[in-house]
Each structure stands twice: as structure tokens, then as C-alpha cells.
Design a protein that fits this description.
Layout: E1 6-10, H1 14-26, E2 30-34, H2 37-47, E3 51-55, H3 63-72, E4 80-86, H4 93-99, E5 103-107, H5 111-123
Parallel strand pairs: 1-2, 1-3, 3-4, 4-5
Helix pairs in contact: 2-3, 3-4
Length: 124
């Protein structure tokens, strides 16, 4: 039996969620999506994915706070968090490191970059 390759995508942009979900599903990943940090946290708590791909800036719980909450929970701390940032968006990398972000991807994103990071996360 193969390990379920579960990824939760958290982004307030429906087109970004749909695009990434399509790419990942076509590569055999099991994908669930959330429109905001609150939904992303609830899905992650319920499903225990290996990877959460989250937008940095969202209303309510943003990607930083989502990551902090995941990493502060001993049962969820092992989830690999990949943060998506818009081109030119000033991201506080020190803040991101402080909350435990594992990787950054800049939007518009490179499909191969996302897939390579996911393969690495699932291999580890």
C-alpha cells in the first residue's frame, strides 16, 4: 500500500487554489483546499497532511500565523510548510523562519519547483 500523498493548499485566491490543485492532482497527490487560514488549520488538524502550501498574506489568519499554530502543536509540528509569496511582496524572512516556514515559492510559481519541493518533503 502506498502512502497517501496529502497536500493542503491554503490561499484566498480561488484561481491559485484551483491551478495548484490541478497540477498536484495530475501528479498523483491527494489535495484538499482551504480559502483562508482558519479553514487551513481545521483541515490540517483533521487530515494531518504531509505538506501545507499556504499563501503568506490572507485576511484573518495569515500564512505566518497558520504556520506558527501548526508548528506549536506537537501533533502537527512535522507538517512541511511551504509559503507562497507574490513577486515583489516584501516578506519578513526572519519572521517566517521564526514561525517555522520550511520553504518559500514566489508567485507566479514554477510548477517544477513546487513538484520538486513536494517530492523532497514526501521522501523525507
Amino acid at each position: 500500500m502506498t502512502e497517501m500523498r496529502m497536500v493542503v493548499i491554503v490561499d484566498d485566491s480561488p484561481s491559485v487554489r484551483e491551478t495548484i490543485a490541478f497540477i498536484l492532482e495530475s501528479e498523483g497527490f491527494e489535495v484538499r483546499t482551504a480559502a483562508n487560514g482558519e479553514e487551513g488549520l481545521a483541515l490540517s488538524t483533521e487530515l494531518r497532511p504531509k505538506v501545507v502550501l499556504t499563501d503568506a498574506m490572507m485576511p484573518g489568519i495569515d500564512g505566518f500565523e497558520l504556520c506558527r499554530r501548526l508548528k506549536d502543536d506537537p501533533e502537527l509540528a512535522g507538517i512541511c510548510v511551504i509559503m507562497l509569496t507574490s513577486m515583489g511582496q516584501q516578506i519578513d524572512h526572519e519572521r517566517a523562519k521564526g514561525v517555522g516556514v520550511d520553504h518559500f515559492i514566489t508567485k507566479p510559481f514554477d510548477e517544477d519547483e513546487i513538484l520538486a519541493l513536494l517530492e523532497t518533503a514526501f521522501a523525507g
